[in-house]
Design a protein that fits this description.
heterodimer, A: mainly alpha, MetI-like fold, two-stranded antiparallel ribbon, 10 helices, about 0% strand, flat, disordered C terminus, B: alpha/beta, six-stranded mixed sheet, about 35% helix, about 25% strand
Chain lengths: ~325, ~260
């Protein structure tokens, strides 16, 4: 039988009370941090709704069909059609350009490159991701846009029968295409860096399973690496898309602003929601600012929709894998 | 068709660390050869030189000869992928392709070899799964993901995947060390069934397992922490476990070290 010495018991009880107080403090601090996030989201939502409502009311349903942007005129004439079109199309073109290169370079860095080269190029990739977008904008307008012209002309000559690659006026330059190329270059390092981390997570056992069957390096990538990484790659692409949709300053600098819904992306002119907000905000009156906030709400809705779809895709591919449906 | 492996002077490094030194071992067809020894003695490294999986590890290299029925698997006329298509391997942890179906896992090796006809693939899948004693458990759900199987079933699936391409040799690197005792016995029975058709080499930590399943046992050991693994002795399993020639073997099998 072990007798507990009462003072010792009292001491340990006192000690426990002290830890319980620390516990409570910890719980309150974390609860507070959680609440801050909720409050922020609510505050942003309320702000967007309060300012956007007058604009929505003024424009009515034409807000979604009108291409022009004259919110301060009387009568006011403004709508999201051209802006949303430019935002979505430039981001899609950027993804089409960036994803293959990003995933390819990530595969090269993890699977093929000699280790030291892989590390050096990996650093460069991270550096590229850290370049501020205003620098991309400057570089885009002074360096890239003039040098893209021959590429655009070549595209027009070879596949110009597709409207997407045809310029009716024969002029090129500060086009939605050029903006998409700048966007692609901006999101490339993000997608590549995340993909590289995902490929690194593939267990050695999976790779060896393929190699031991006599798979070549490419076959091992196809059998073991890509299926394992699919969900993560979708996530990386969606992060890139999120950045492309919201990119402001580089687009505002590269693109010659024009409000049109036009698939001739080689022709100069176009606009996106974020770029329009940046360029118009300082010049707008009260009604104009409310209209810009309304466009911001639409951008918020688009990115939200993209995120929901992405989550759905990741969830479904995960589910399909668990159920064995390819 | 089962073939004979003759390894001579096999020395392998990871970077500057010499993992095994001058291993010479002849492995007869249609027998089970067990490689036993304490942790770090190089038995896994050695078995991975037999199908050129050693060179997959960055910085790894080897010297020496490995002949498969007289043909040098490190010779210029073979690539590592050629070798691995005729010398199959099963790993310590079951590693089916997790997102693939059971059927596609078994067919993976055949598809790599260019087999496309569905009937041929289906036949091979059924034959391999029957041989791996898994058919009765999975025949009604071949389309399900391999990840839905238990650990023991996954390991039998890996064996089915390895034998689907009808290799000459089956290498097993501690195939039961991640499994429960019942699954272990199932795999051991399976090994005994398979040895009529294959040359089987099994690395095991479990001496009882070596005693139960193998015909020949090779004992590896290391002299110290930074020393390379060496082959101490090889002989009929019954002899190694009753009256080994080397006192280090005796010390190991009687449980005095390792």
């Amino acid at each position: 039988m072990t007798a507990v010495d009462p003072p010792a018991l009292a001491r340990s009880a006192r000690r426990r009370r002290a830890t319980r107080r620390a516990d409570t403090a910890f719980r309150l601090v974390t609860l507070g941090s959680g609440l801050v996030v909720v409050v922020l989201i609510v505050a942003i939502g309320v702000f967007l709704f309060v300012h956007a409502t007058p604009a929505f009311r003024k424009a009515g349903s034409s807000f979604f069909t009108e291409k022009a942007w004259f919110p301060d005129n009387s009568p006011a004439r403004f709508g999201i059609a051209a802006l949303a079109f430019g935002t979505v199309l430039s981001s899609i073109v950027a993804l089409v350009l960036a994803v293959p290169v990003a995933v390819g370079s990530a595969l090269f860095l993890t699977e093929l490159a000699p280790r030291r080269l892989g590390r050096v190029v990996g650093y460069l990739l991270d550096l590229l991701a850290a370049v501020p977008s205003v620098v991309y904008g400057l570089w885009g307008i002074y360096y890239l846009v003039p040098r893209l012209k021959p590429v655009e002309q070549w595209l027009d000559r070879t596949v110009g029968f597709i409207p997407l690659f045809h310029s009716r006026a024969g002029i090129y330059g500060r086009s939605l295409f050029a903006a998409s190329v700048v966007l692609a270059i901006m999101i490339l390092p993000i997608i590549a860096a995340i993909s590289r981390e995902i490929f690194r997570q593939v267990p050695r056992a999976d790779r060896e399973a393929a190699l031991a069957l006599g798979a070549t390096r490419w076959e091992a990538i196809r059998l073991a690496v890509l299926p394992y990484s699919r969900g993560g790659i979708v996530g990386a692409v969606m992060l890139g898309l999120g950045r492309a949709l919201g990119e402001t300053i580089a687009i505002a600098m590269v693109l010659a602003a024009a409000f049109k819904v036009d698939f001739h992306i080689l022709e100069p002119g176009g606009n996106t929601i974020a770029a329009n907000i940046a360029t118009k905000f300082g010049l707008s009156g009260g009604a104009g600012r409310d209209a810009l906030v309304a466009s911001g709400l639409v951008l918020f809705a688009i990115t939200l929709a993209v995120n929901v779809v992405a989550r759905g895709v990741v969830y479904r591919t995960g589910l399909a894998a668990a159920e064995g449906k390819p | 068709m089962a073939k004979r492996i003759e390894a001579g002077g096999v020395t392998a490094w990871f970077g500057s660390f010499k993992a095994i030194d001058d291993i010479g071992l002849t492995i007869e067809p249609k027998q089970i050869t067990a490689l036993i020894g304490p942790s770090g003695c190089g038995k896994s490294t050695f078995i991975r030189t037999l199908n050129r999986m050693h060179e997959v590890v960055p910085g790894a290299r080897m010297e020496g000869k490995v002949l498969l029925d007289g043909e040098d698997i490190y010779g210029p006329e073979f690539s590592a992928t050629d070798v691995r298509r005729t010398i199959g391997m099963v790993f310590q942890r079951p590693n089916p392709f997790p997102t693939m179906s059971i059927r596609d896992n078994v067919a993976a090796g055949l598809r790599l070899n260019g087999v496309r006809r569905k009937a041929e693939l289906d036949d091979a899948v059924e034959r391999s799964l029957r041989l791996a004693a898994l058919w009765d458990e999975v025949s009604h759900r071949l389309g399900r993901a391999a990840a839905s199987l238990s650990g023991g079933q996954q390991q039998r699936l890996c064996i089915a995947r390895a034998i689907a391409v009808e290799p000459d040799v089956l290498l097993m690197d501690e195939p039961c060390s991640a499994l429960d005792p019942v699954s272990t016995l199932t795999i051991e029975d399976l090994m005994s069934d398979l040895k009529d058709q294959y040359t089987i080499v099994v690395v095991t930590h479990n001496m009882q397992q070596a005693a139960r399943v193998s015909d020949v046992t090779a004992f590896f050991t290391i002299a110290g922490a930074d020393e390379p693994g060496r082959l101490v002795e090889v002989g009929a399993t019954s002899k190694i476990f009753t009256k080994p020639d080397d006192e280090r073997t005796e010390a190991y099998i009687t449980g005095r070290f390792g």
